[in-house]
What we know:
The protein is an alpha/beta fold. It is built from three helices and seven strands.
Amino acid sequence: MAQQLRDNPSLDGIELYVSSFDGVCKYTQGELGTRGDKINNPVRPALTSYGGWATDLSAQFPRRARLHVFHIAGGEEVAPLSGIRAFSAYSGGSPPKTLFGQSPGGVGDSGRTAYVARWVALSSPKQERRR
């Protein structure tokens, strides 16, 4: 929906705020431009592979003036072997293996970062049972 709103030139004058709470993509379907490269969650629990499918958010939102995306991600796969997990953004080039703190998804017209991500540490069900 955010992509469709931002693609409409008549809405260029409005601020668009998008909040995503562990928004997920299935990379095998190319959702949100994901291809299977993963960015690791830097605060993931030990012995997990939590992370997000990498997407070049600048390519997904070429018209990103006045766009503000806030994304919270944990990165655990939704269902085992489903290929569905959170997305994580980067801007141009190759995605990093691990991304700490703020993720640059391009800069808006005001010079502010258009995309901010916060990683969260989630406990796996196996770890919960051990406690």
